[in-house]
Amino acid sequence: MSGGEVAGILVAVFWAILVSFLAVALVRLAQTLRATTRLVAEVTDQAVPLLADASTAVRSAQTQIERVDAIASDVQEVTSNASALSTTVASTFGGPLVKVAAFGYGVRRAVSGRKDDAPAKAPRRTVIVGRTVPGARREKRARGKKD
Q1: What is the reported pTM?
Q2: Residue 122 has pLDDT above 70, yes or no
Q3: Is 124 in contact with 139 (CB distance < 8 Å)?
Q4: Residue 103 and residue 116: Cα distance in Å, rounded?
Q5: Which of 123, 144, 120, 121 is nearest to 135 (CA)?
Q6: How far is CA 37 from CA 15, 43, 45, in A?
Q7: 3-state SS string over the chain?
Q8: Residues 6+ apart with CB under 8 A from 85
Q9: Fewest CB within a 10 Å sphere: which of 17, 57, 119, 122?
Q10: Domains of the chain by residue range
Q11: What does residue 65 show for φ and ψ, rounded to 5 degrees?
């Protein structure tokens, strides 16, 4: 056997091993592609009903949002009506009620001022840096007249 024949046999063996590895790789690639095809088909079969359910849920949510929007606009209208009503009531009854309360206060003050048997209030004193200062002059005059 000459060197060229040995080289040819080596190249043939090399090519045979290379073709074997490529054949194994192609077989495994074909298996992977089949498995991927099955997986995609299963996902598609499961995704279509899920998408239909999601579409139904979105439509239902849109309906509910429209209802809530209508309710919110009604609440806003009721709030503005209540505000207008409270303004009307305050302007109608507020002034006279304040006047009646002031009149009642004046009457009570006048009636309580005429009672002689009521005990005198204790004089008001102010503390300034540890010393006690007598109350206002008006209180002194009022005490002097009653005493």
Answers
A1: 0.39
A2: no
A3: yes
A4: 23
A5: 123
A6: 32, 10, 12
A7: CCHHHHHHHHHHHHHHHHHHHHHHHHHHHHHHHHHHHHHHHHHHHHHHHHHHHHHHHHHHHHHHHHHHHHHHHHHHHHHHHHHHHHHHHHHHHHHHHHHHHHHHHHHHHHHHHCCCCCCCCCCCCEEECCEEECCCHHHHHHHHHHC
A8: none
A9: 119
A10: 10-113
A11: -65, -40
Length of the chain: 147
CB 134 within 8 A of CB 140: yes
Q: How far apart are CA 73 and CA 81, in angstroms?
A: 12
pLDDT digit string, tens, across residues 50-105: 999 999 999 999 999 999 999 999 999 999 999 999 888 888 887 888 888 888 89
Whole-angstrom distance, CA of residue 141 vs CA of residue 139: 5
Place of tokens 């002097």: 144
Which residues, at least 6 apart from 126, have a Cβ–Cβ distance to it below 8 Å?
A: 132, 133, 135
